[in-house]
Amino acid sequence: MIGIIVSGHGNFASGLLSTVKLIAGEQDMVIGIDFVDGQGSVELKNNIKDAMNKLGDEILVLTDLAGGSPFMNSVLLKQELTDKKIEVISGTNIPMLLEVVLKRDDNDMKELMQLAKMAGTNGINIFELKEKQEEDYNSDDGI
Amino acid sequence: MIGIIVSGHGNFASGLLSTVKLIAGEQDMVIGIDFVDGQGSVELKNNIKDAMNKLGDEILVLTDLAGGSPFMNSVLLKQELTDKKIEVISGTNIPMLLEVVLKRDDNDMKELMQLAKMAGTNGINIFELKEKQEEDYNSDDGI
What is the pTM of this model? Predict the structure, then answer.
């Protein structure tokens, strides 16, 4: 199974993983790495590296934004740990994270990355009031 | 100034707002509403409504995913609180949230919504190793 690492500034990772836990339950092979005030980049990199070593040979890293320390250190580790297949994505949102966590069994890394990008992009929507949507959203049911 | 509400399942909101605080500092007129285990939809809706009343007449709600309780209750409040201009977006990620928080002063609601969607979508990227990027990301500098 492809391992998933979520990493971002502050409590980005633990926040998003709490969302996944509430919506889809506990997930195996998923590790969150927070990068909090007072930590340095070396500590962050070590934490991500430790997580990568726990997760095995295929790892998808979902980060908060391109260019930040969680993203950059993941990219550096992708280049250093050449015995592993590591991929790094930025701009993680919940539709993307749910997609990769729930579809790891049926897709290889290349497919999973495309699904991640598609789910993340398609999940970004501005609500517009239309007759059809009004019906859809007037229910109390939901997750 | 347009008020911002971030809301999602679990600690989505507090997680993302901790990221914004680390990257861009404390922000005015931004409220996070977590929807945690044990809370009901009525409590969530009241919490979002209270936040809307604190934030004034123009409010942009950034939610975790379409169809979930944070999204649906925000849409219901958009329909109920007709004296306010309320807009609701799903699929929130950090590039989107930073964009709206930092560009509220120079844009009206319609522009800000489009900027949010564009920043969120453009912020989703799969890292690809190219000669140019290798140079860019081999630096220790970063945020």
Answer: 0.91
